[in-house]
């Protein structure tokens, strides 16, 4: 099993973190510690936002869903994620979202890590949500409503507990089975949980509201009358054109914070607004260049669609945690001939090569 420092791999070998390995790594570190440390990496990279190449993700949309590539580089390393979003997949026992990622060395172009990112994306999405809430949510907030209790819900709950101390949850999903699943999974993990019969009931008494639904359509998960003064809204589910969760009037009452405006204006809740509607970039708040929460009565909205730098941070974090562990396997991924220009010679010299046999007249 691999225990050699990651930096000392043979040139042809690339560490690969499978789903099994990722689960081992997360559980060895501990979920809450993993989320805290991951959030710190994301925060660090937001503080150096100007170092990164930035582009909206490259998306291929269909009637059934979307497939996306999310690339970025800080000049020293390059990362990308392949990710899909297909809400109807659950009917066939498949995940709505699956992903994998690559982290590479800019100087050589060689990949340094390939990793599953289905679990890792759930963790980084939750870590980013809670990180944003540290700057935007009411101070001392302990009660959060989660509307949409699917695959992301428990990760959101654990991240808000780890980073903000949230320990009271009010859950609602149109599928009661999803709420029961979420309540069952979080039992014994330090939460007081109330299963609610409606979204309206869920937000009653909540200081933070997380919306994280999956349907690919314009939806009204939160209506204007459900949002009171001082609330922080963590809108996670609206993440592609034609898919939103909040009534437009909520946006007009809120101070809106986003990751990357050119992407969010196409994919996020603010696709409902005029192109010039003012928003604040989250990195500016984290870097101390803009104000997040100003007062107790302010309604703050984190219009979260996910951005490539967050995946870069997650891959960077995972790679840093792998050295000296057995939570990966080496993939023989890269050609490494004795002479870099003699790639064809590798074929000739490969044991049992038919090319070599033909040349020898066998």
UniProtKB/TrEMBL annotation:
Its EC number is 4.3.1.12. Keywords: Lyase. GO terms for molecular function: ornithine cyclodeaminase activity. InterPro entries: NAD(P)-bd_dom_sf, ODC_Mu_crystall, ODC_N. It comes from the Bacteria. Belongs to the ornithine cyclodeaminase/mu-crystallin family. PANTHER family: KETIMINE REDUCTASE MU-CRYSTALLIN. This is Ornithine cyclodeaminase. It comes from Nitratireductor indicus C115.
């Amino acid at each position: 099993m691999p225990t050699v420092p990651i930096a000392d791999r043979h040139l042809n070998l690339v560490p690969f973190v499978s789903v099994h390995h990722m689960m081992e790594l997360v559980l060895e570190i501990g979920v809450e510690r993993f989320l805290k440390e991951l959030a710190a990496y994301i925060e660090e990279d937001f503080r150096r936002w100007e170092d990164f190449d930035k582009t909206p993700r490259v998306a291929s949309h269909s009637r059934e869903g979307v497939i996306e590539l999310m690339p970025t580089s800080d000049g020293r390393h390059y990362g990308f994620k392949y990710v899909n979003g297909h809400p109807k997949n659950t009917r066939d026992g498949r995940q709505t979202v699956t992903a994998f990622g690559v982290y590479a060395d800019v100087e050589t172009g060689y990949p340094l890590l390939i990793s599953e990112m289905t679990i890792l994306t759930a963790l980084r999405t939750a870590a980013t949500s809670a990180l944003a809430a540290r700057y935007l949510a009411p101070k001392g907030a302990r009660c959060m409503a989660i509307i949409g209790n699917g695959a992301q819900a428990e990760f959101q709950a654990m991240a808000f507990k780890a980073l903000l101390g949230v320990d009271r949850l009010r859950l609602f999903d149109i599928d009661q089975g999803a709420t029961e699943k979420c309540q069952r999974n979080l039992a014994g993990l330090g939460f007081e949980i109330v299963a609610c019969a409606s979204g309206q009931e869920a937000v009653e008494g909540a200081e933070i509201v997380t919306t994280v639904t999956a349907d690919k359509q314009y939806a009204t998960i939160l209506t204007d009358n459900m949002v009171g003064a001082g609330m922080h809204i963590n809108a996670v589910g609206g993440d592609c054109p034609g898919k939103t969760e909040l009534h437009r009037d909520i946006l007009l009452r809120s101070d809106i914070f986003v990751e990357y405006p050119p992407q969010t204006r196409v994919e996020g809740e603010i696709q409902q607004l005029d192109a010039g509607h003012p928003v604040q970039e989250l990195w500016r708040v984290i870097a101390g260049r803009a104000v997040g929460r100003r007062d107790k009565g302010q309604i703050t909205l984190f219009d979260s669609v996910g951005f490539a730098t967050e995946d870069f941070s997650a891959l960077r974090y995972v790679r840093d945690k792998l050295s000296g562990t057995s939570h990966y396997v080496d993939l023989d991924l890269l050609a490494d001939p004795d002479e870099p220009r003699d790639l064809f010679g590798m074929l000739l010299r490969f044991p049992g090569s038919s090319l070599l046999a033909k040349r020898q007249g066998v």
